[in-house]
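Budget justification, computational time. The allocation requested in the original proposal was used primarily to generate structure tokens for proteins on the priority list. As evidence of use, we reproduce two of the resulting records. The first is shown immediately below.
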Amino acid sequence: MKKVLIVDDSLSVARQLEKIIADSGDFCCVGHAKNGAEAIRMNHTENPDLICMDMNMPGMDGLTALRSLVVLDKEVKVVMITSLGGIGDKFTEAIKLGARSVISKPFTTDDVLRVLRNL
């Protein structure tokens, strides 16, 4: 079973992702970080196989955290999650920085599982 770290400042989004992951049978949630700085710390302590990370968070945002995560671990697998308008620019930036995929909010169970299973 692959371990997933959820990074989102929204508790409702984090819970939705946790439920999708727990019900999948393929993944388990190893933690929930509320910002990019927590994500970097928890990536080191929890050693997840995948990270689902929101782009827009207070403190350290997802793109800033992604930059640091890729420097610390070239093999890190990060899926960015965003509800931002004008996703095109952010999507391109996230992929250039090393994200493996981008999921738009609102997302469906099928959207999330399809992306995670393809990594």
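The second record produced under the same allocation is shown here.
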Amino acid sequence: MLIALVLGLSVLALVVAWSLRGYVLRQDNGTPDMRKISDAIQEGAEAFLRRQYRTIGILSIALGALIYVLYAFFRKPHPGEPAAATLALTTTLSFLFGAFCSGVAGVIGMYVAVRANIRTASAARSSLNKALRSR
């Protein structure tokens, strides 16, 4: 019952986030000069994320291997737990999946944030209230 509630609320949160993203991206994206600057900022943000995630990816794989080794060879299972190798594998895969989901959230967040900034700047050309509402 609890897992169904958690999954249902998670899906609802994703739907709300997707609709807010759509609302932001439907706003006016400014003049051609503004878009040129925004495109340069977007390119820089993507380069930053590529470099950062390359480093984090390597560290995550190394840490995942360390987690596996520690769980498989150094941790003694408690009664009722699965075998050490099974627990090590599931723990490591859970860690890597969490790291992957965190990375996806970072990419989506950066994508929307950079695109929201130009829309806020564009809305500020007409009124402060409109700029504050566009975010």
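A brief technical remark on that second record: The chain has a mean pLDDT of 92.
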